[in-house]
Amino acid sequence: MDASTFAAVFAALFVAHSIGDHWVQTHMQALAKGHPGWPGRLADARHVGTLTLTKLAVLLPVAVLLDLRLSAPAVALGLAVDAAAHWWADRRTTLAWLARLTGKSDFYRLGAPRTGRDDNPSLGTGAYALDQSFHHLWLLVAALVIAHF
């Protein structure tokens, strides 16, 4: 594996993640993706779909401009792994479960709104920090997959 290819792929995915998770995601997706049942699952799938397309839209020009030798199957596999992990984490109950399992429940709840409003309970909170760090881990894995094959 070429370290410079890995670094370029990771940088592109990291930037694209921030764009897709914050600029491209709609307000309704952000509110509904953690809801129970199919409405929440579908909202999460729509978010992850646009997020994955954003990552591809950023990665492809970077690969062309830097003359990276990426294989289409590796890009597809890396983005699929990242998308699956992102979808899982954004269901909210799953990441809350992981926080409980690792003893991070108090941090997960840090800064959560205490109102009955239907706000996104994760922005600017411990839950948000854990969410983003989980996503960053899977961006690393995706970049390793893409750069390795």
Describe the structure.
By secondary structure, the chain is mostly helical. The chain has one domain (3-148). Helices cover 75% and strands 0% of the residues. The protein has seven helices and no strands. Helix 1 runs antiparallel to helix 7 and helix 4 (72-89) packs antiparallel against helix 7. The termini are close together. The mean pLDDT is 93.
What is the H/E order?
HHHHHHH
Strand content: under 5%
Helix/strand structural class: mainly alpha
What portion of residues is helical? over 70%
Main beta-sheet annotation: none
Radius of gyration: 16 Å
Per DSSP E runs of 2 or more residues, the count of β-strands stands at 0
Q: Count the domains.
A: 1
pLDDT < 50 stretches: none
How would you summarize what this structure contains?
The chain is mainly α and 149 residues long. The chain has one domain (3-148).
Any descriptors?
7 helices, 149 residues, single chain, mainly alpha, 75% helix
